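Why ArsR/SmtB family transcription factor? Reviewers of the renewal asked for a concrete example.
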Amino acid sequence: MNKQDQLNMIKEDFINCQKVLLAIGDETRQAILLVLMGTDCQTGLRVGEITEQTHLSRPAVSHHLKILRDAGIILMRKEGTKNFYYINVRSELGLLKTLVMDIDKFMQNFYLNDGISGG
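Here is what the prediction returned.
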């Protein structure tokens, strides 16, 4: 694969990752994700539980949860009138891995082999 083909592939990766990058680029959403990842609860957490651990308001937590859901990073499970939020293990986060791997491959092919070293 030539340099332009690899650049086109990386461009496509960036397009595919846009929603995820925007969603996880926010510090508040990162804090919410860390709370969800750090819980021992396998069934998910409710907004109130996330609010307690992040010290954010309920409306703020709900707003950020919606963005994370829209990006496919978390899922919601309803139980009667209660909503439980949890990490989507089959999420779009895998697209980030592809992006990073493609960039790494590009750098190996076109920069490291030219005798140019980073750092």
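Residues 59 and 106 are 42 Å apart (CA to CA). This is the kind of structural detail the renewal will allow us to pursue systematically.
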